[in-house]
């Protein structure tokens, strides 16, 4: 047993050299071709030569027992066959086998034959795993089985039989263990390499997806900002201001103030379902249609009915838009409106503390065909205040997942009711930021404030 342990230690020293060489070859583009099963003729010849030399090294550095060298000669062809295919495996096995045959000895023929078989059988395993990489357990099991077969061939062919049997009894365990350990280390190296490559591919794919997402968000933001008015008119007798604060993942909020002539202005605030580029494109479509229908019809009900018909016909994605549209008349100080499923604007009368709500008069645009929209009218006297908003305002959350809420919005508006529209909007935004406490904004925040002066 002591002799066997010493033989095993010598073989393990040989394996260390082979593993160092193997590590460097696995990091080459040539070996990558083999793993991806796209090996060119030149690369295949290079690998045959490399693993053939490893097989020769395994022979030369072996330990002689009873006139026959014990070694890890089969390791090179086995690895070549299992991981690089039968052509490389057989080529390396023939090189190693031919060299062993040249050394002579009573085991020359069975040992040479076994080395060639090691490469061929490794190639068979390669083909048997066409759909998935060879596992570590399969590779090590093959190495053990191959060395058992090697010992059997020696007993079958070598003569005198007694000498062959004596040889096998001394060298079988060290050679089986050494080749198994060598295959284990090599298979682990390749498994780690495949894991690294897979991780890198996943990381690259994630990075590409992230870049694509950033590009989409930028495109969506550009579309949204392009279609928002650069400035809005100031109706006589009123203080009007609107603002849009896009979220990181851009939605489809928009507002508009459409000059209609004769002292009338069309006021729009809307929220498109969805996020990113699709929402931004839908927002652009909706704004264009609303602007067009607003110039066709003086009746706000017909504006939304026609807009709904066009939007519903043009959309096959299941998207919709909630929208408030009102016509402000400077002369009569009236706001005639229709509300397509949008958050009810808040109306605070001068001197009052209770809010009124301009409730929906129909469903969201694009949600269903052939819809009718009712029209309502309110008078806005000096001191009256109307706050229009999207759900990004009331649904802004803090770290406890608590929404800002309509109640907080009302409380904030009451506290600054005497201020200008600009200051009211600034205060609402500041209070929302304070409520969020650093939590990311997940939806667009759009506000429009109309104050009678």
TrEMBL record:
Pfam families registered for this protein in UniProt: 5TM-5TMR_LYT, SpoIIE
Compartment(s): Cell membrane
Membrane topology listed for this record: Multi-pass membrane protein
Membrane-spanning segments: 6-26, 38-58, 78-99, 106-128, 134-157, 164-187
Domain PPM-type phosphatase intervals: 237-452
InterPro entries, sorted: Bact_Sigma-Reg, PPM-type-like_dom_sf, PPM-type_phosphatase-like_dom, Sig_transdc_His_kinase_LytS_TM
Gene name for this UniProt entry: rsbU
Example GO BP: cell wall organization
Species whose genome carries this gene: Methanoculleus bourgensis
UniProt keyword list: Cell membrane, Hydrolase, Membrane, Transmembrane, Transmembrane helix
Any one GO molecular function term: phosphorelay sensor kinase activity
Entry's Gene Ontology cellular component terms: plasma membrane
Keyword Hydrolase: yes
Protein name per its UniProtKB record: Protein icfG
């Amino acid at each position: 047993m002591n002799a066997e342990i010493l033989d095993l230690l010598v073989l393990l020293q040989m394996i260390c050299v082979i593993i160092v060489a193997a590590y460097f070859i696995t990091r080459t583009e040539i070996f990558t071709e083999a793993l991806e099963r796209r090996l060119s003729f030149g690369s295949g010849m290079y690998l045959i030569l490399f693993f053939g030399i490893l097989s020769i090294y395994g022979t030369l550095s072996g330990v002689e027992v009873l006139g026959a060298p014990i070694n890890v000669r089969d390791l090179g062809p086995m690895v070549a066959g299992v991981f690089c295919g039968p052509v490389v495996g057989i080529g390396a096995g023939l090189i190693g086998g031919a060299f062993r045959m040249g050394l002579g000895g009573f085991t020359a023929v069975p040992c040479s034959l076994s080395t060639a078989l090691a490469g061929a059988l490794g190639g068979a395993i390669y083909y048997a795993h066409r759909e998935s990489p060879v596992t570590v357990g399969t590779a090590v099991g093959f190495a053990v089985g191959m060395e058992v077969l090697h010992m059997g061939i020696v007993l079958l062919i070598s003569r005198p039989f007694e000498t062959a049997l004596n040889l096998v009894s001394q060298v079988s365990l060290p050679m089986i263990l050494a080749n198994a350990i060598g295959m284990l280390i090599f298979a682990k190296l390749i498994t780690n390499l495949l894991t690294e490559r897979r991780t890198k591919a996943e990381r690259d794919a994630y990075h590409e997806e992230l870049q694509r997402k950033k590009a989409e968000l930028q495109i969506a933001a550009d579309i949204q900002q392009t279609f928002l008015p650069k400035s809005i008119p100031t109706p006589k007798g009123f203080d009007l201001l609107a603002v849009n604060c896009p979220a990181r993942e851009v939605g489809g909020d928009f507002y508009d103030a459409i000059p209609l002539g004769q002292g009338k202005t069309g006021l729009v605030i809307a929220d498109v379902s969805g996020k990113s580029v699709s929402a931004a494109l839908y927002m652009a479509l909706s704004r264009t249609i609303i602007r067009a229908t607003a110039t066709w019809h003086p009746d706000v009900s017909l504006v939304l009915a026609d807009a709904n018909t066009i939007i519903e016909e043009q959309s096959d994605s299941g998207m919709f838009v909630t929208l408030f549209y009102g016509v402000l008349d400077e002369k009569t100080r009236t706001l005639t409106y229709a509300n397509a499923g949008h958050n009810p604007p808040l109306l605070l009368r001068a001197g009052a503390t209770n809010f009124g709500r301009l409730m929906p008069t129909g469903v969201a645009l694009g949600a269903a065909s052939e819809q009718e929209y009712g029209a309502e009218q309110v008078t806005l006297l000096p001191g009256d205040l109307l706050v229009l908003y999207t759900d990004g305002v009331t649904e802004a959350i803090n770290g406890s997942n608590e929404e800002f809420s309509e109640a907080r919005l009302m409380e904030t508006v009451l506290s600054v009711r005497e201020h200008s529209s600009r200051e009211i909007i600034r205060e609402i935004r500041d209070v929302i930021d304070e409520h969020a406490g650093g939590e990311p904004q997940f939806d667009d925040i759009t506000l429009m404030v109309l104050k009678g002066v």
